[in-house]
Input
Amino acid sequence: MSIRKCLFPAAGYGTRFLPATKAMPKEMMPIVSKPLIQYGVEEAMTAGMREIGIVTGRGKRAIEDHFDKSYELENQIAGTGKENLLAEITEIIARCRFSYTRQVEMLGLGHAILVGEGLVGNEPFGVILADDYCVASPDSVMQQMVKIYEKYQCSVVAVEEVSLSRVSRYGVIDGVERDGVFRVSSMVEKPRPESAPSQLAIIGRYILTPDIFEILRKISPVSGGELHITDALNVQARNGGVIGLKFSGSRFDCGGLDGFVAATNYTYDTLKMKSGV
Output
């Protein structure tokens, strides 16, 4: 089965970017002239995913408005030199179908994915966390992952080697490398450096098989009532159902100021080179 759907958990508060995110979703923070979530949707499209499900929360209406027509604005700039500035988002709106649901309580990524079950149904699907901004060529990260899924027909997580001092920020995999990918045997959520099974951290790109929903319903929440997606993936991994892909490309953690600025500088410089300026 080809993967047609991609889920975007987008209900978080974005507190690291206050006060900017007091009234604006963090997913709408612009990298140069496009919001983070648009880059994510464009990546999903490169992998053939045209049905986009977005799990939102209170104060996130700007995301829905962005992926919708704006008749007043389009009429105002029609026939001017600014009309082409909307060409990319207009094409996205025409080619994709967007669906939305709300995560009423912030209970972790696993819970957000479970809330999105109604948007996905009983089929494999992608998951993109928009604040992980990925740049890769010729294949996007999600394209690379789809190829792995097509070969192994199981869940796939994108992994990146990080310094030992940073493993406590991520889910970290344990596994054996074979044929350029990792057969994941287990994973640990935010381990201490001295107990981390590796330095291969899971980033915000997943392909999940639909049995993940039933697993999420059965696992126990951690303190605070959160459901960790790593706990559900561990169940799949015990049955040989998770592959880790050390992807080709670059990733910017735009959930923090340093990564956001680095992504902006990189994108701006890239656009300047393409335009010959």
